């Protein structure tokens, strides 16, 4: 599927994030919920690299920037169990690092045609950034 406009692509990302949030809401925050979100993010980037490139602009968006990109970021925070009324700065930094790195690495895997070979490494690097331990991938 190709999108005619950037707005359509952003709406696709927003809808995907809403569905992802709904799929993890019943899970308690923690390693398994984080892993489900990380794995989904890798697959989404593999399936839709162009849309994912657009979504990576979320990190560039100011709090008062593009409202649609801010909303997508807030949905991700909710999916990851981040309470914006009681912000854990370390968690926000870890999430930003994990998902920025994941996005760039997954896009590179697509470009290098190494999706299968890189997948487990990308997932584990993101999980490490989230603070879930360093498990060696072979």
Automatic annotation (TrEMBL):
<protein>
    <submittedName>
        <fullName>Uncharacterized protein</fullName>
    </submittedName>
</protein>
